[in-house]
Amino acid sequence: MRAKQPAIYILASRKNGTLYVGVTSDLAARVAIHQQKLVDGFTKRYGVHRLVHYEYFATMLDAIAREKQLKKFLRAQKIALIEATNPEWTDLAQTIQNWRD
């Protein structure tokens, strides 16, 4: 069984496309839900399912604080954050350790 760990993530519809910032305790499971379009909402409606950035945290409180910080970022700041580690906007879903155990 995969251990849960708090994380924030940014999804994109495509390179320089629509962005979504979220927080979760189980990144692999949450990304799978977005990619399989299992829940109605913003990401399903706008096709935002490419994992382009994520960060793990020791506590959920830390993850929530970072999510709030990122949601206040200007779009240009979010793009700079993504491109600092993922300049091609590659879907990182397969890089998540223990993906879909």
Give an account of the 3D structure:
This protein is α+β, with helices and mostly antiparallel strands and 101 residues long. The chain has one domain (7-95): GIY-YIG endonuclease (3-Layer(aba) Sandwich). Helix content is 38%, strand content 19%. A 3-stranded antiparallel beta sheet has the order 2-1-3, with helices on both faces. It is globular. The model has no long low-confidence stretch (mean pLDDT 92).
Total separate domains: 1
Helix content: 25-40%
Task: Please summarize the sheet with the most strands.
Answer: 3 strands, antiparallel
Residue fraction in strands: 15-25%
Tell me the Rg in angstroms: 13 Å
Oligomeric status: single chain
> What structural class should be given to the helix and strand makeup?
alpha+beta
> SSE order in H/E notation?
EEHHEHH
> What does the overall shape look like?
globular
- CATH architecture label: 3-Layer(aba) Sandwich
CATH superfamily: GIY-YIG endonuclease
Highest-level CATH class: Alpha Beta
Number of helices: 4
The total count of strands amounts to 3
Q: Separation of termini?
A: 7 Å
Mean model confidence by pLDDT: 92
The strand order across the widest sheet is 2-1-3
